[in-house]
């Protein structure tokens, strides 16, 4: 049965219901009645910059949805701090019961974090609570709990996840820094997952002073220090008994992994400390550089400046006049550093990274979402799909300087999602967007037309309405006929209640005039019709 259904705000966004209420009110947002999410104002309406696409709600009432994937045509959503895997039908309806409910430590960066589906096998990454109950850092239950970040394989029987098999275990620092958890599937059924640095500064963060550290994770007898497996991407070979390979290192903090469906190359997002968020092409034995370098090596970065008293040393170690390059880490165990393919100088908090399927369009693009500004960026791939090719001269150096909303228009695809974006994915020509604080999954897709010619009298009506020869009621009556007779198909996720005022904004009239005169196409005109339907001025029966 189914029922209807800074650096980063990530640092404080997660918690139990009381914490949710506290967090929402702290930021000026009331909590929902269920205390599952924050309630945002009407001005928080998502917008897509391409007039050929429309945006609507797919599912609501979720509790901090952090990762999404599909099994068949059903969506699986991870609720970060409830520890529940929620199943949603293809028409956006939540099933009565979760398909899995695990005990997690969930505050800050930890919790139920990553998912990758492989037919009847589902892989999950989560911070497992050893107490057997969902706990938040600092609570009395956690004081004696030694939680672990764990990767499991589950069997999927069409209704539930069962038979967990532990594949990998990591420390889970009480500091709750940079647990990672993002997962994705490769073209050959391999599974990739990432763990952040967890506040460590060891071998996998390019701190190799101890010669006894080995990439094999074996502590040499000359070492008394543990080898923390942090700041890395791992690959699971599902065809070889889930054997695990260290794939990349030097990663500070990542929330996004994606595989190019054409080349099979792995890409990731990486969050800088205060500057230079990254988008990386992650080839085997890739070293992202942290904590020697973040962003392009030839750009000064206060976060890694050797003379700033930061992570690389103190001010006495170098001359006060030092300016310039960040120190590139030496090749270590065949892991080689390379610059990111793109960087944001002003941090945006990048989260998911995803490639569209063929039916969505944008076949030569890569999409990245952010949490800080709730925006989705589109990056034009170059001919061999190993980097980007921008038309704007401001992006030729592959660095976005300045604020996110002052970037060239070609970079921004959508924005204004309430409460930040935690994940994006594509399925059957639709982009699905998880709005973390809003507890909502949105969908973006092409506007559909029937292919039937719009009668001339409809356009005449629009022109007459603009100059005042017919009134609002006559204009709306014509639009109702157009839609109810299937000549123009308007995809709307939710229809508004019939308005008592039925006041049509002036901008609607302006776009109607442009459409009647051929200055804009029907896709652009439909955006106004969507607004009229959503606000109850046009009622579809």
Kindly list the characteristics that best describe this protein.
541 residues, mainly beta, Neuraminidase, 2 domains, five-stranded antiparallel β-sheet
Topology, please?
Layout (H helix, E strand, L loop, with lengths): L1 E2 L13 H10 L20 E2 L4 E7 L5 E7 L2 E6 L4 E5 L5 E2 L4 E2 L10 E7 L2 E8 L19 E9 L4 E11 L11 E3 L5 E5 L36 E6 L5 E7 L6 E4 L6 E5 L4 E8 L3 E2 L48 E2 L4 E5 L3 E5 L10 E6 L5 E5 L18 E2 L11 E4 L5 E7 L2 E6 L4 E7 L9 H11 L5 H13 L21 H11 L5 H13 L7
Parallel strand pairs: 16-20, 20-21, 22-26
Antiparallel strand pairs: 1-7, 2-27, 3-30, 4-5, 5-6, 6-8, 9-10, 10-11, 11-12, 13-14, 14-15, 15-16, 17-18, 18-19, 19-22, 23-24, 24-25, 25-27, 28-29, 29-30
Characterize the structure shown.
The protein has 541 residues and is mainly beta. The protein folds into 2 domains: 2-446, Neuraminidase, CATH 2.120.10.30; 456-534, no CATH class. It has helices at residues 17-26, 456-466, 472-484, 506-516, 522-534, and strands at residues 2-3, 47-48, 53-59, 65-71, 74-79, 84-88, 94-95, 100-101, 112-118, 121-128, 148-156, 161-171, 183-185, 191-195, 232-237, 243-249, 256-259, 266-270, 275-282, 286-287, 336-337, 342-346, 350-354, 365-370, 376-380, 399-400, 412-415, 421-427, 430-435, 440-446. A 6-stranded mixed beta sheet has the order 13-14-15-16-20-21, with no helix packed on it. A hairpin with a 2-residue loop joins β9 (112-118) and β10 (121-128). 43% of the residues are buried. Residues 1-15, 308-315 and 492-497 have low confidence and may be disordered.
């Amino acid at each position: 049965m189914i029922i209807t259904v800074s650096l980063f705000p990530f640092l404080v966004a997660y918690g139990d219901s009381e914490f949710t209420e506290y967090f929402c009110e702290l930021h000026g947002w009331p909590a929902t009645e269920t205390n599952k999410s924050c309630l945002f104002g009407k001005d928080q309406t998502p917008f897509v910059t391409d007039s050929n696409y429309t945006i609507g709600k797919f599912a609501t009432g979720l509790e901090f949805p952090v990762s999404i994937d599909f099994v068949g045509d059903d969506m699986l959503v991870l609720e970060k701090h409830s520890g529940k895997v929620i199943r949603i039908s293809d028409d956006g309806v939540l099933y009565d019961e979760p398909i899995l409910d695990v005990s997690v430590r969930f505050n800050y960066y930890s919790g139920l974090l990553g998912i990758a589906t492989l037919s009847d096998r589902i892989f999950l990454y989560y911070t497992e609570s050893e107490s057997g109950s969902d706990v938040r850092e600092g609570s009395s239950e956690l004081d004696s709990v030694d939680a672990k970040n764990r990767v499991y394989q589950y069997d999927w029987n069409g209704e539930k996840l069962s038979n967990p098999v532990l594949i990998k275990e990591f420390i889970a620092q009480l500091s709750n820094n940079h647990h990672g958890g993002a997962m994705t599937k490769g073209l050959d059924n391999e599974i990739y997952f990432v763990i952040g640095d967890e506040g460590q500064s060891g071998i996998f963060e390019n701190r190799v002073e101890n010669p006894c550290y080995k990439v094999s994770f074996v502590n040499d007898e000359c070492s008394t220090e543990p080898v923390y497996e942090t700041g890395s991407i791992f690959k699971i070979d599902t065809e070889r008994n889930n054997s695990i390979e260290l794939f990349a290192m030097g990663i500070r903090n990542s929330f996004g992994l994606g595989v190019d469906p054409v080349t099979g190359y792995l890409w990731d997002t990486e969050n800088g400390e205060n500057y230079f968020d990254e988008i990386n092409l992650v080839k085997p034995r890739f070293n992202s550089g942290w904590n020697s370098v973040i962003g392009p090596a030839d750009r000064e970065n206060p976060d890694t400046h050797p003379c700033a008293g930061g992570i690389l040393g103190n001010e006495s170690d170098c001359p006060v006049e030092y300016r310039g390059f960040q120190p590139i880490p030496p090749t270590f165990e065949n892991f080689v550093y390379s610059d990111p393919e793109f960087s944001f100088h002003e941090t945006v908090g990048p989260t998911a990274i995803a490639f569209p399927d063929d039916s969505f369009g944008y076949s030569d693009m890569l999409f990245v979402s952010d949490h800080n500004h709730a925006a989705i960026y589109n990056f034009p791939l170059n001919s061999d799909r190993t980097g980007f090719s921008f038309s704007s001269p401001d992006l030729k150096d592959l660095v976005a300087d300045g604020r996110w909303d002052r970037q060239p228009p070609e970079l921004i695809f959508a924005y204004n999602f309430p409460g930040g974006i935690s994940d994006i994915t594509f399925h059957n020509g639709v982009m699905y967007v998880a709005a973390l604080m809003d507890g909502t999954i949105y969908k973006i897709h092409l506007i559909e037309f029937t292919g039937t010619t719009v009668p001339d009298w409809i356009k005449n009506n629009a022109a007459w309405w603009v100059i005042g020869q017919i009134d609002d009621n006559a204009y709306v009556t014509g639009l109702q006929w157009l839609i109810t007779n299937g000549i123009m198909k308007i995809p709307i996720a939710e229809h508004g209640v019939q308005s008592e005022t039925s006041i049509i904004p002036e901008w609607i009239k302006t776009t109607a005039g442009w459409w009647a005169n051929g200055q804009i196409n029907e896709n652009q005109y439909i955006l106004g019709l969507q607004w009229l339907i959503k606000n109850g001025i046009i009622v579809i029966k």
